[in-house]
């Protein structure tokens, strides 16, 4: 496990032009990206949000609402939009810089509370935005992964430890005994005698840490420093890797933020963009943003890839990482088979658990069990795929046709 810095790392790549900054859905092992994740359980925001944005000079060609049969929340276009056209524009005055992009959510939360408490008028003016965000208890991420029972359900020691370190960090920044930078711990707000700081509860603080980490985007400010920015409405757009139809950019002259169509979009069609490609790996997406996807073709968790790790960067399709040589394929098949036997429950047992006790489970447990079921399913499908590949794979060993051949080999 790396330092806290690595844990809080943002990913994906930004391309800077003179007047316009595009956040492209490319990845490298480092740099920046869109890190917001909509909370699918949260109801649609009240009309106040649109009115407030309109007053500030926003342009809005999408609306928040259900985007599938199951009632998943997302955003849909309110008119036909051609590729290259603007879908959404919000001025800088409707956005919030919450701190350096490399800081963990806890430090960003201190930043946010400082601003709110220092300028209550400003905070009050943002009420429509605060109301559009998920309420405490309906958001989950590594910053608040404090329940050992939930971590246990992950069925993976590394993921559980990663979650625990991050949750501990949030607790310690609040208590005032850990921080990447002095002055970033919560008690500094008490020392500054900011009115209302003493009323902030740990529950509120944790929620803010999770929000600032998961509902923020990374962009350079005027000084070229990469900052995490909270962007109303943008943060309610769902992630899609392949097939996303828009991208986010910043106009560096006006400081406003834009969502541009990367394809023709029909009225009523869902608008999606790629937060970053690392989210195509379900373990990464779950621990950082608490969502996962069922992809076709499926993708292994980052931790299940040969040499995989949670730091991301495993962004291309699995074939890029899976072997082609017969011996290596066979070895990987046996590793995957062994892995499937080490989980305390099987894919079928997880499925049964969700079907039988699903309604009794709290939503966090439900999603974690669903995640690990999907993880096992993908390993199983990958074994099947490797078996197919094995049939026609080349072999590095020369064909040993008899005793002479094997002697020669020695
Ligand atoms: C900011 O304003 C909201 C109301 O919109 C309020 O609920 C919240 O307590 C305020 N935050 C702080 C830290 O004062
Ligand atoms: C988290 O904090 C608890 C309580 O202080 C401690 O026992 C545990 O070792 C910490 N976990 C990690 C992974 O650092
Ligand atoms: C901070 O304090 C808590 C509670 O006293 C303790 O569990 C934790 O290990 C401390 N963290 C650090 C980094 O010292």
UniProtKB/TrEMBL annotation:
GO terms for biological process: methylation. It comes from Coccomyxa subellipsoidea (strain C-169) (Green microalga). This is SET domain-containing protein. Residues 58-276 form the SET domain. It holds the Pfam family SET. The keyword DNA-binding does not apply. PANTHER family: SET DOMAIN-CONTAINING PROTEIN 4, UNCHARACTERIZED PUTATIVE METHYLTRANSFERASE. The keyword Lipid metabolism does not apply. GO terms for molecular function: protein-lysine N-methyltransferase activity. Keywords: Methyltransferase, S-adenosyl-L-methionine, Transferase.
């Amino acid at each position: 496990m790396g330092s806290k810095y690595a844990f809080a790392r943002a990913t994906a790549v930004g391309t800077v032009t003179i007047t316009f900054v595009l956040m492209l859905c490319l990845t490298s092992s480092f740099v920046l990206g869109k890190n917001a994740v909509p909370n699918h359980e949260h109801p649609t925001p009240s009309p106040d949000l649109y009115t407030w944005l309109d007053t500030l000079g926003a342009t809005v060609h999408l609306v928040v609402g259900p985007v599938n049969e199951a009632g998943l929340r997302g955003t849909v276009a309110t008119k036909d939009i051609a590729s290259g056209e603007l879908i959404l524009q919000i001025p800088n005055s409707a956005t919030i810089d919450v701190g350096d992009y490399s800081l963990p959510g806890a430090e960003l939360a201190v930043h946010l509370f400082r601003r709110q408490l220092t300028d209550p008028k400003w905070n009050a003016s943002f009420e429509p935005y605060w109301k559009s965000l998920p309420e405490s208890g309906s958001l989950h991420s590594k910053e608040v992964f404090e329940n050992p029972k939930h971590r246990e359900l992950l069925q993976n020691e590394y993921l559980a430890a990663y979650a625990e370190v991050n949750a501990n960090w949030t607790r310690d920044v609040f208590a005032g005994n850990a921080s990447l930078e002095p002055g970033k711990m919560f008690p500094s707000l008490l020392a500054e005698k900011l009115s209302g700081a003493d009323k902030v509860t740990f529950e509120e603080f944790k929620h803010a840490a999770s929000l600032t980490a998961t509902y923020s985007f990374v962009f350079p400010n005027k000084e070229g420093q990469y900052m995490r920015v909270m962007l109303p409405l943008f943060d309610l757009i769902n992630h899609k890797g392949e097939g996303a139809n828009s991208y986010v950019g910043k106009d560096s002259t006006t400081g406003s933020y834009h969502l541009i169509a990367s394809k023709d979009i029909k009225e009523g069609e869902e608008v999606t963009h790629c937060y970053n490609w690392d989210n195509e790996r379900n373990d990464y997406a779950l621990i950082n943003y608490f969502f996962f996807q069922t992809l076709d073709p499926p993708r292994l968790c980052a931790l299940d890839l040969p040499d995989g790790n949670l730091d991301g960067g495993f962004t291309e399709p699995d074939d890029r990482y899976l072997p082609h040589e017969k011996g290596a394929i066979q070895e990987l098949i046996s590793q995957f088979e062994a892995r499937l036997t080490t989980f305390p429950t099987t894919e079928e047992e997880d499925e049964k658990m969700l079907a039988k006790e699903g309604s009794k489970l709290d939503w966090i447990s439900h999603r974690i069990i669903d995640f690990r079921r999907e993880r096992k399913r993908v390993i199983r499908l990958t074994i099947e795929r490797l078996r197919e590949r094995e049939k026609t794979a080349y072999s590095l060993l020369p064909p040993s046709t008899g005793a002479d051949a094997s002697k020669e080999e020695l």
